Amino acid sequence: MKQPKERHLIPSEGEALVAHNLKVMRKAARLSQDDVAERMRRLGFKFHQTQVAKIENGTRAIQFDEVIGLAKALNLPAEYFMTQAVANPDDPHYELQEAGFRLQDLEKEWRAAQDLADAAKGRLEEAEREYDEIAERLGVDVTPSGDALTFYPAPNSPGDPLRKDAGPSASE
Fold it and tell me: What Pfam families does this protein's entry cite (predicted)?
């Protein structure tokens, strides 16, 4: 299968993503940077408006516990800050960004499906090797004839070459 193309979407992961999302969600909640700083102080953080501004501008690093605090201060799940960019509908690239995030999600889904398929193929090949080893050890010929698909008989069924009949049946 063909590998998906690499794409670089903005904002990038990490602190830039948190900064972008903080700014968009703060404005959506109609809160000032002072309001967010005050809420953070009530949660026990030593925050000032300038720190909020620096985080939003990407000039101040942000700690994980601060991200959790900002989520609480804005009454939002923390994942909203860290999973993907919150798009601003006024942004001219909004539609492209949304399509890019859908594309990223589907590429992750494709990779997960590919990993599952690869794992299943490995288990199937191992089971086939085991079957062949047991048949060889018991001296049973299970070589497929021609290009026909090979169907292994159910264990202990009449077509099972490994079946040992108990002798003539009681009805004979």
Answer: HTH_3
